[in-house]
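>> received
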Amino acid sequence: GIKGFKALLGLAFAIIGVTFVLIPLTVRGNNAILVSIGVVSVVSLVCFIIFDGIGIKSISAIIATIAGVSVAGLFAYIVQSIGHLSGFNMSEAESLMLIAKNDQFYIRGLLVAGILISSLGAVMDVAMSIASTVNELVSINPDLSFQRLFKSGMNVGKDAMGTMANTLILAFTGSSLNLLLLVFSYGISFSQFINNDSIAIELLQGLAGSIGIIVCVPIAAFITAFISKYGENKKNRQ
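>> returned
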C-alpha cells in the first residue's frame, strides 16, 4: 500500500543519489570516501523521513544507521591500510585508470566507498527493525521501564544481526562465485587462496558490513528507548 509506495520513493532517491551525485563527484576527482559518507547520510535521512516521517522511529534509525555505516567504513579503512589493500587491488582498477581524465581520480578511496554503500541497506534494515519494535512496545505498554525497552531492542537486534550478517557474507560470496569456481578447478592451496587480493577484498566487505550492523544494534535500541521513555515523560510534565 502506501508504505510500499514510500519505500519505492526512498529507493528511487537512493539510486539518484548514487547515480547523479556519488559517481559524478568521484569521477571529477573528489575524495570518494567523503562523498560516500555524505551520500549515505543524506540517503538514510531522506529515506527514513519519506517512509516514516519525522518521529522517534526515524530519528533513532537515522542516527544508528549513520553511526553503523561510519564505523564500518572506519574499520575498512584501517584494515585496508594494514593489509595494503586499496582501489588498485580491484579488478576494474586498470580500466578506471585508463578512462580517468586527470590524475586527480581518487581511486584509493573506492574500496571503502563501495563498502559504505553496500552496507547501507543492511544497516538501515536493522536500525528500523529495532526502532519500530521498541516504539510498538511503548504504544502497547507505556509503563515499561527504559531498561526493559532497551533489553527488548537488544534482543530483537541480536536476532536480526545474525541473519543480516549472513546475508551480507552470502551476497559477497555470490558475487565472487566465478572466482571461487576457478580456484577450486585449479586446485589452489588455501594459503594462496586466502591471500588473493579479490578474496581479501570480499572478506573485508563482509566483515565491515557485519561490524556496522553490530554497532547499529545497541545505538538504535538505546536511542529509541531513551527518547520513547524520557522524551514522553518530559512532554507529559509540560
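>> The radius of gyration is 20 Å.
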